[in-house]
Specification:
About 25% of the residues lie in helices and about 35% in strands. By secondary structure, the protein is an alpha+beta fold.
Length: about 170
């Protein structure tokens, strides 16, 4: 949390790739599915367009809008959880992805923030983003993704128990 009334999560990683390759990895749905552990991302990547992240079974996980897009440097998305009522009720968050050359590697900074102190959404993304971005880094540098690192939040399934792993 940075200031009263807000919560945020910042993750910075350095990847041996080019800004263009990283941009493609962040915006190509078939490639994203590999490091998002099977999740499907749908959008046309135009400013003002809606986006949707869905579980492999088709249930919607998150939605939002492409707020800003500056290829291959910056992407801003509005972000709202759709499968956990306590997170959905917090409203829209903002996710900023910034890419910059840093010598022989590329710096990727993700800032996920919401105008709510003590946000449960920010608590959730602070567990999910490191898993996703570690898998992305490994995929770009080695050609292989990481094996699943426990579970990403999948929401309640009618046959599932109340156990939640993130």
């Amino acid at each position: 949390m940075t200031e009263a009334g807000k919560s945020n999560f910042v993750y910075v990683t350095y990847i041996r790739t080019t800004p263009e390759e990283l941009w493609a990895a962040l915006t190509t749905p078939d490639f994203m599915k590999k490091y998002w552990f099977g999740m499907n991302f749908e959008t046309d990547w135009k400013q003002g367009s809606p986006w949707k992240l869905a579980f492999p079974d088709g249930r919607v996980a998150d939605t939002g809008e492409v707020v800003e897009i500056e290829k291959p440097k910056r992407l801003i998305l509005s972000w709202r959880n759709q499968f956990r009522p306590e997170l959905h009720n917090e409203g829209y968050a903002r996710c900023v992805m910034e890419i910059e050359q840093a010598g022989e590697v590329v710096k990727l900074a993700i800032t996920h923030e919401i105008d709510k102190p003590g946000s449960k959404l920010i608590d959730a993304v602070s567990v999910g983003w490191p898993k996703i971005l570690s898998s992305l880094k490994t995929l770009l540098e080695t050609g292989s993704t990481l094996p699943a690192i426990s579970e990403l939040p999948r929401g309640e399934n009618k046959a599932a128990s109340h156990r939640r792993q993130i």
